[in-house]
Amino acid sequence: MNNTQKFIQENKDRFLDELIELLKIPSISADTAYTQDVINTADLIAKYLTDAGADNVEICETEGFPVVYGEKIVDPTKPTVLVYGHYDVQPADPLELWESGPFEPVIKKTEIHPDGAIFARGSADDKGQMFMHVKAFEALNKSNELPCNVKFMIEGEEEIGSPSLVNFVKNNKEKLKNDVILISDTSMISNEQPSISIGLRGLSYVEVEVKGANRDMHSGVYGGAVPNPLNILAGMIAKLINEKGEITIPGFYDNVIELTEEERAEMAKIPFNIDDYKKSIGIADIQGEEGYTTIERTSIRPTLDVNGMWGGYIGEGAKTVIPSMAYAKISMRLVPGQDHEDITRKFVEYFPTLAPSSVEVVVKPHHGGKPYILPTTDKGYIAAKKALAETFEKEALPERAGGSIPIVALFEEELGTKSVLMGFGLNSDVIHSPNEHYGLFNFYKGIETIPYFFKYYTEE
After folding, report:
1. Residue-wise pLDDT tens digits, 248-291
2. Which of 238, 232, 221 is nearest to 312 (CA)?
3. SS3 for 438?
4. Contact 88, 402 (CB under 8 A)
5. Structural domains in the chain, sorted by start
6. Model confidence over 98-136: pLDDT tens digits?
7. How many whole angstroms separate alpha carbon 393 and alpha carbon 85?
8. For residue 371, what is the enclosing H or E element?
9. How many Å apart are CA 49 and CA 245, to the nearest integer?
10. Please, which residues have CB within 8 angstroms of residue 401's CB and are 6 or more apart in sequence?
11. Which end of the chain offers a freer environment for a tag, N or C, measured as fewer CB atoms within 10 Å?
């Protein structure tokens, strides 16, 4: 693959310039104010795929935002790799915490990224990682070294649970037919120690409302006599996790598949320094479910977290009211054995029982997804391991990711193929937070590594 790697080296500056143009577009799928920006991003990706040499490039309409599709069939008898990624991004709030504009990409050197990192919303999740595949494909195609068939499916709704992709996949099974799905939307251990994500947690996401009086009340006139929905909601949420860090929803752990002692011992080999971990995120101590390490708590154990809570007066100065309404958004990360629909149902049934009769409780389920596991004996895993060894000159370790990509389990159900999660981000990239960034080392290393995945997968 000398010609491919030579092409990459000769075009690195252009690749980065094109990524910067992509990052300038605020493709926030969760906010209707950015609808046209999301559509514009799909158009730009379609252009980049066409320029890279993909055939049959389409902007496929869905019930929501479009899916960008493209392909290159070099030989129907050879394996087909389906590349999945997403072009939508998380909202940038809170804007005041960004050191530079979230959609004004800048490159800065950091302690972890001495060669520089690109700071922008979507740089690591997932525009930067998705774009590596477009550029790796271009390099292989322009160098006439593409060893297998490649298809692209780049969607615009991952950050809101991929609601439209479900029907798209079900209705386009022949178009999407493949031997393996390749995804870069996860992280690795470090720039010195590559890893492959062999597991994803599932997700159940809900919104709750607690209703009190028919209007906000004066806290002096009514205080002590009427229910305060914010106080009550806080108390209800506190009861969802006990003093051992265990989730109290009845039946929550019923179907959890526990790891063997041997599997936990393998996980313990992953390099991890608890002091560095605490320092990196500015906390004095850790917490979580008793009997598990930090790595285990963030990967093989289910969780429940409040993602936002509001109600009453939150403006400047004081306003002494008892709010009539209180709200919270709650996410539960799930592990193999748990079904998101079952867990959501259990939450809906249990949460209102924690409230006094003085208030009304409403639970609104949002999106969810199933957990996913990739065996280390899988052909795709082996190809990824060989590819990473080629460019990092070090053996990659298997690692379970704490995050969720809900659509991955659906791919296996509907398309019958496994997904290989070969991510190049780092946990320090602060995705979903202000000042998200992606190392230039990681961006270029991904472009260099992906061609080797195609090579080794075709040879297996």
Report:
1. 999 999 999 999 999 899 889 899 999 999 998 999 999 999 99
2. 232
3. strand
4. no
5. 2-200+372-459 (3.40.630.10), 202-256+302-369 (3.30.70.360)
6. 999 999 999 999 999 999 999 999 999 999 999 999 999
7. 26
8. none
9. 47
10. 186, 187, 197, 199, 200, 201, 299, 421, 423
11. C
User: Of all helices (H) and strands (E), which one includes residue 269?
Assistant: none
Q: Are 126 and 86 in contact (CB under 8 A)?
A: yes
| Number of residues that this document lists for the chain | 460
Determine contact, residues 181/411, Cβ cutoff 8 Å.
yes
Q: Is residue 269 classed exposed, middle or buried when 0-12, 13-18 and 19+ CB atoms within 10 A define those classes?
A: exposed
Tokens of 115: 């060669």
| Separation between Cα atoms, residue 432 and residue 413, nearest integer Å | 28
Which positions of the chain have pLDDT values less than 70? 1, 460
Distances from the Cα of 366 to the Cα of 31, 354, 363, 426, angstroms: 16, 21, 10, 28
Instruction: Give the three-state DSSP class for 78.
Output: coil
Cβ atoms of 366 and 162 closer than 8 Å:
no
Whole-angstrom distance between the N-terminal and C-terminal Cα of the chain? 17
What distance in Å separates the CA atoms of residue 31 and residue 292, rounded to the nearest whole number? Answer: 38
